């Protein structure tokens, strides 16, 4: 940091809580090290440089308990139910402590599920989308999934990045829940993905009990009212519906993950260019992601 003098620092370390994480004893330790200690090291580096560097910390909706469908706000207490959520919760409170104790501009975005074609296949949504494409192309026969009765508040990732960016433009650092406020069953997500490639999901899905998590949040839903009020941020797209200018999926077009994702969220092809503000485009990584999405390069 002393050499590069970054203005913002984005901390988005994630170690997904796959079933293997519960079975291998080292995984929870690695999760704590990468998320909690990684965040703490960044905070310490910022404190020692004393250069007014701003830190964005990616927190998670997994920190909340299962609220039975009630939306979670910034005021709801955490009750983590996985090694990943425990680490994210600890990092959240460390960020809060450094903000108050050392006057560091550090904020956390408590983001609910957000998706795009850039997700790796270890995430269930991308696993579903890519498998649906492969099955439609005759390259795969079946898809094994765990509990498809869970419900999640799914949003469109580029919009969530815009919210993250806005958090760092404020004069005073605060934490924000970022969510659409709507939930959808994973089963519905599966059905929509397979419908987008002209298939009936029930003919291609196998429920695998070994993929069930030992502890699970059955319904996740967020309330982003604070973000709407203070950031002027509201989502246009979610995992249920979208504006009327959305595409009809991959029907009549190329069967690939990018097209199916746009179908799931009713997102037009040039969505990325509309969402990223001119000021935000200065970040090269975000421009690259927007370009890949808008040109359909991700498959």
Description:
- By secondary structure, the chain is of the alpha/beta class.
- It has one domain: NAD(P)-binding Rossmann-like Domain (Rossmann fold, 3-Layer(aba) Sandwich).
- Helices cover 38% and strands 11% of the residues.
- It has ten helices and ten strands.
- It has a four-stranded parallel sheet with strand order 1-2-3-8, sandwiched between helices.
- Helix 2 (26-49) runs parallel beside helix 3, helix 4 (124-136) runs parallel beside helix 6 (186-196) and helix 6 (186-196) crosses helix 8 (257-265).
- The radius of gyration is 19 Å and the shape is elongated.
- The two termini are 35 Å apart.
- Give the name of the CATH superfamily: NAD(P)-binding Rossmann-like Domain
Strand content: 5-15%
CATH architecture: 3-Layer(aba) Sandwich
| SSE string | EHHEHEEHEEEHEEHEHHHH
Q: Characterize the largest beta sheet: strand count, sense, and whether it forms a barrel.
A: 4 strands, parallel
Count of β-strands: 10
Helix proportion of residues, in percent? 25-40%
Overall pLDDT metric? 81
Give the spatial strand order of the biggest sheet. 1-2-3-8
Structural class: alpha/beta
Could you name the CATH topology?
A: Rossmann fold
Structural shape: elongated
**How many domains make up the coordinates?**
1
Mind telling me the C-alpha Rg? 19 Å
Topology:
Layout: E1 8-11, H1 19-23, H2 26-49, E2 54-60, H3 83-102, E3 106-111, E4 114-115, H4 124-136, E5 143-145, E6 151-152, E7 155-156, H5 157-167, E8 176-178, E9 184-185, H6 186-196, E10 205-207, H7 225-230, H8 257-265, H9 271-275, H10 284-294
Parallel strand pairs: 1-2, 2-3, 3-8, 4-7, 5-10
Antiparallel strand pairs: 6-9
